[in-house]
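User: Can you recover a sequence for this backbone? Please restate the input before giving your answer.

Assistant: Of course. Working from this structure:
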């Protein structure tokens, strides 16, 4: 028996029992045992215990071990921000920020997975995520007269305005 939460005097057997009974998020464990409700130092251990008991999460992580894309890391987590949180995969990479010029860690968008996905569908989703990130990077770095013409962060309003203006062979020049 090992203490997990010193502040609230909760050990690993108690946490394991709760997880097996379906208390499968940190918030549920907190409510049921008060573990993690004081200094918070034990939360990472509780999260690890929850993850190790999560067969579906472990299954997806096992598949992800075989996936690689140069200079990227694949993160597989369960989104516990919402009840019954779904598993997602997310590519993470280090690159220079085009605004500050400093190196930083970038997190691509989350790709949520269904519990019923086949292994091949999970791998294809990771591939789609890598493709989306490559396109995003291209849009970030491509310039025309120093302008990020295909800026992936352009607002919807600006896109709506721009899309109303077209050039054709009959009218090849912008009006203004
Ligand atoms: S060790 Fe668990 S809240 Fe402090």
């Amino acid at each position: 028996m090992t203490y997990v939460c010193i502040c609230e005097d909760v050990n690993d057997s108690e946490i394991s029992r709760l997880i097996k009974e379906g208390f499968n998020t940190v918030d549920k464990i907190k409510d049921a045992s008060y573990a993690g409700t004081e200094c918070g130092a034990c939360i990472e251990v509780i999260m690890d215990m929850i993850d190790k008991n999560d067969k579906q999460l472990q299954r997806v992580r096992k598949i992800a071990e075989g996936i690689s894309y140069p200079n990227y890391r694949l993160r597989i987590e369960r989104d516990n921000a919402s009840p019954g949180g779904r598993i997602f995969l997310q590519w993470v990479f280090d690159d220079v920020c085009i605004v500050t010029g400093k190196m930083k860690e970038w997190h691509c968008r989350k790709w949520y997975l269904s519990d019923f996905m086949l292994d091949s569908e999970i791998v294809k989703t990771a591939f789609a995520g890598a493709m989306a990130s490559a396109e995003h990077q291209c849009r970030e770095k491509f310039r025309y007269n120093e302008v990020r013409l295909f800026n992936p962060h352009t607002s919807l309003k600006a896109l709506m305005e721009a899309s109303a203006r077209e050039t054709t062979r009959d009218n090849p020049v912008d009006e203004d």
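That completes the design. Residues 5-8, 35-42 surround FE2/S2 (inorganic) cluster (CB under 6 Å).
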